Every structure is written in C-alpha cells, then in structure tokens.
Amino acid sequence: MNENRFIAVFRDIRDSLRRLSRRDWIVCAAVFPSVGFLCALYILFRPGNYIEPGTLGPLFFFGILYAALLSGALIRRDAWGRMIYFAFPPVLLLCEWLNFSPIEQFYAVTQLSFAMLLSVWFFCADTLCGDPAGHFRRSLRLLPTLLFGFLLYLLPVTILAHHIATGRNFTYDSIQAVYQTDLAEALHYFFTHFFCLLLFALLILCGAGLFFLNRIGASRGVSRGYLVCIALVLLGLSRPLYTELTGIDSLNRTKMLFTDSLQYFAVIEEYAARGPERMEMVKRHVEKASGEDGIFVLIIGESHNRNRCSAYGYEPDTTPFMKAASREPDFILMRNAFSCHVQTMQVVSCMLSAHNQYVKYGKTALPSIFDVLKYCGYYTVFLSNQYPHGRYDSPIAALVSGADECVWLNTMEDFILWRARFDETLLAPLSQHLRSDRSFVVLHLMGSHGPYARRYPKGFREDLASWHVYDRSVLYVDGVLERIFTMLRKNPRVKAALYLADHSEKPGVGHGADAYVQEIAEIPMLLYLSESLRRERPGLAETLRSHAGSVFTNDLTFELLLDLMGVRHTFGSPRYRIALPSYCLPFEEARTLLGARRLDGTEIKRR
Ligand SMILES: [Zn+2]
Fold it and tell me: Which of its termini does the chain have fewer beta carbons within 10 Å around, N or C?
C-alpha cells in the first residue's frame, strides 16, 4: 500500500467516525456496558472461588473487540444475517450447560473468551469475503454467511440437537458411535428418523432466513477503511484462534470432546492393530502359564519427591507410614530410585511395557505387562484416579486397554477443571478387586500433582497450615498408602506390592523435561513382600534387600514385577533385573529422559 492509499484509508475511517449520529453513539454506549455486565454476571454466579489471574486479560480484550464489532454491525444496519455470530457465546454456553456438568468460575472465564474469540473471528472473515462479493451482487453475501455460520455452529448445534432428540448427553460414546458408522448406515438413519428430517428442514429455513435478513435495509457499499480494520482484526486473531483450536493448553469442553475423542480412537486403534505383533514377542520371551499364584499389586504415585519424604530424612514428618514401614521385615525401602523420564505418559508407558532405556529390541511393538500376564493366566485390573482421555493420557489408556478390567474415576470434565477424586476414593474399588487367586492390580494415584491443595480434602490436618501445601499433599498420600497397605497385608492372597512414583516434582516449579534437574527424577520406592512369599522364596527377598541401596530407574519396573511374580521370561538382561543377584546398574550408566541424559543431567552423545 503506498502512502496516498494509506492516507485515503485513514481519512475514510476518520470521516466514518465523524458521520456517526447521536443515535449511533447511543448504540455504542448501550452495547459496551451490556456486554461487560452480562459477562460479569455470568462469571460471578458460577460456583467456585478461583479465577486464574492470567485468564482475565484475554477475556477483557475479547470482550472489548466483541462489543466494538457488535456496535459496528448495529450501526451499519445492512447485513443482519451476520448477527448470528454474536449469538454464538450464549449458544455455546447453553450447549455446554446442558451437556456437561455445571462449571466453575475458573473455567467460565476461559469459556467466555473462547466463545467471543470465535464470534469475532468468524464475523470478520464473513465481512471480508461478503462485502466485496456483495458489491457485485447483493445476494452473494449469503454464501460466506452460510459457510462460516455452518462451521461455527456445527458442533454446538449437533450437541444441542442430540440432547433435544434423545434427552441424553453427547459423550465420547456418542462420538464413537458416529465414528464407527459408515455412509450407508448414516443415510439410512437420516431418512428413517423424523428428527433428522426436521433438523434438515430447519437448516434450510435458517438459510432462507439469513438470505432475507441480509437484504433488509439499504446496502451500504464497501468502505475501505472499515474493511482494513476488519482485516487487521482477522489477521491479529488468527494465531490465537489457531492456538485455541489446536493448542495443548486449550481446554474448551466442546472442542475437546471432539478433538480428543478422535485422537483417542486413533491411538487405541493403532495400539490394537499391533496386538498380534506384541503377542509374537510375548511368545518368544515368556514361558506360557509360568508365574506364582496370588495377588500382586503395583501402585503408581504421582509427582512424588523423595527428598520431601521423612522416610528419606526430610523434616517435617511428611511420610510417617513409609518411615515406620521401612523398619519392618515386610518392607524394603529402595533408597536410590529414579524416574526414566519426568512426564507421566512417557514414564507410565515404560513402567507397564517391555520398553526400557538400556536394551534395544528394534522397531517391533513391545508387549505390555497386561499382554504378558494374560498369557500367563493372570486376571489384570487397572484402577485410575487420573484421566482416560486427552493427548497426555490417551497413550496410557491404549496401553492399559489390554487389562481385563479398567476403572477410571475421572472424566474429561474433571481434567478441564483440574479436579480429581481424592486418592482415598480408590480404596473401595481396590477392595473389590482383591478376590481372585491369580491376579495383577495396578493403582494409578493422582498423588501430589499440582495444584497441590486440590489433592487433599478441605480441612485435612489444618493444624499443619504452616506447612508447604506440597508437603501436606505428600502427607495425605502417605496416609492413603497406609490404608492401601493395611488392606493388602490383611489379605493372605496378596503376595507382593510395589509403590513407586512416576517422577518427582520441584514444589512450586513442576516437572518439565525442558528444565531437567536431578531432583525431579528422584522418587520414593517401597516394596512389600508378604510373609508367605518370603517363606516360599527366601532368596528373592534377600536379593532385593541387598539391592535396596542400588540405583534403579523405574523403566525396569516391568522386569521387576515379572520376577516378583515368578514369571519365567527373557526380557531385558540379567544385569537390569533388580530381583536377580546379577543386577548391576552403576550411577554413571543409569539414564533418564528416555535414555537422552545421565541422571546428573549430562547429555548423552548419540552416535
Ligand atoms: Zn506424573
């Protein structure tokens, strides 16, 4: 754009503003406070008492843009069809209100920002396409409105229509049903259901309505200044929109319901497709039906830093149970355990599969512990207080889909709202799964994952209010572990149990791989061997106790569990099986971040 054009556009904007009548200014004066008032009203009447301060800035910004464009559209009065974009926030709120559980203030703020961002972006895109097209022929303005309106409303209207037609919520299962339907089935369904035909007729009516709405009032013609402003807004918002739709932190429920479902199905399908390959590997490495009878339990902790455990010398007394247990003959406290990565998905995938950092198996799909134990005739159960869906969690869900039974306590809603049940909720389902004579049970705790204060019930040990909230969460987990181990020790069928965390945590900082320090790989690990097991296999207990001070990385959990259960196998190498006397993993050789670093953080040079 050369200088003259730039000045012309600027003049155009200035003149348009000068031409605004008193009535136009009254419109603006009504729209801005109304938008602000309605947003504030909505958020204030949501339950919850926490709003992430960083989310208020975007809300304010998108609120102003939304009000500005709405005022502009009301003043121009020539393309009423585009008003549908401004109806999007209330429609989305209604759809989410009907389809999901009531939301908290924390989420309501981001929900409103998201809805207004979409409204504004789609309005701008429509204007930028529709105004020049309408310059040639007024009716052409309908096309972008139909296209963008359809895209914007497709998902919320689908959810609303499903709700009205069936009275049920639209869930992962609904999407799965749609996902597994082929075209012929879909067409048959469409033509045999009155509701679908009605919906179709309504859509046609909406199209016709938009056509006539766009013809009301005199055509304004194309204003260059207005279009340049709209183009700038569109450009400026394109990146935030892209992030909101694809970003890892964008948590809109309607969006996530669809994107995460599709990703989840893809991951599960891919995993299932390689089942035969994994079974081949199991047959090569495992003696069928080997292993001792009994119940074996793995408890996976979360973000548990052993340097904050009194059992490892920390003051105050954050782990009284672990400390007392370490002195008893039933337990072995492993003093030098580390995590093989610092993020849950990577670690749990290694813990529960033959994958480890030291032995390379080539490109073949590696079996999970569930694959192996099923082959050996164990009944396998996975109980989780984490989340089944989502890009961090779906790979774990795929892996544990090999278990005979999976129990997930939380839903997508819980994930978005950062909430989970308290870990003690796992006790009831655990007690119901300790009945079989030959079984393997995994418990996946929420442990001390941030935000720490949400990991224990309100009022838990208020006398310790001066403690760091992280330490209080560690104390709570220790209490839950005490209750779990008490239950296990009372049950004569339980032969062995292992508690270890997925990774550690730097309280207040977190556990990111990009900021690796040794501390976030230092985890607690506690092994329980029942009296009967120690009697039957005295050598095993002796060997493990002699390795209590050895360096151990938790990707070797798979081999440890199989050896505890007496499964005869050839996975790994005798050097990396801590239950064998041949175990030998010097600190310099041990790895983390999936083999990319030494434990002290030194990067490994790859040849
Ligand atoms: Zn984790």
Answer: C
For residue 233, which amino acid is it? V
Share above pLDDT 70 across residues of the chain, in percent, rounded to a whole number? 98
**Separation of alpha carbons 190 and 178, rounded Å:** 12
| Same domain flag for 298 and 155 | no
10 Å Cβ neighbour count for 43?
Answer: 18
How remote is the CA of residue 417 from the centroid of ligand 1, in Å?
17
Domain limits at 406? Answer: 286-598
Tell me the CA–centroid distance for residue 503 and ligand 1, in Å. Answer: 6
Distance CA 8, CA 100 (A): 50
Q: How far is the CA of 483 from the centre of ligand 1 (A)?
A: 22
CB under 5 Å of ion ligand 1: residues: 302, 344, 502
pLDDT tens figures, 465-514: 999 999 999 999 999 999 999 999 999 999 999 999 999 999 988 888 88
Report the predicted TM-score, pTM, of the whole model to 2 decimal places.
Answer: 0.81
Q: Around 253, how many Cα atoms within 13 Å sit in the side-chain half-sphere? A: 31
Please count the structural domains in the chain. Answer: 2
Query: Based on the domain organization, do 400 and 448 belong to the same domain?
Result: yes
Identify the pLDDT of residue 606. Answer: 56
pLDDT tens for each residue of 468-478 = 999 999 999 99
Q: Which of 226, 243, 260 is the last residue of a domain?
A: 260
Q: How far is the CA of 390 from the centre of ligand 1 (A)?
A: 14
The answer on 198 and 113 residing in a single domain is yes
Q: Which of 171-180, 195-204, 526-535 has the lowest average pLDDT? A: 171-180
Distance in angstroms (rounded) separating the CA atoms of residues 525 and 544: 12
Spacing, Cα 496 to ligand 1 middle (Å): 23
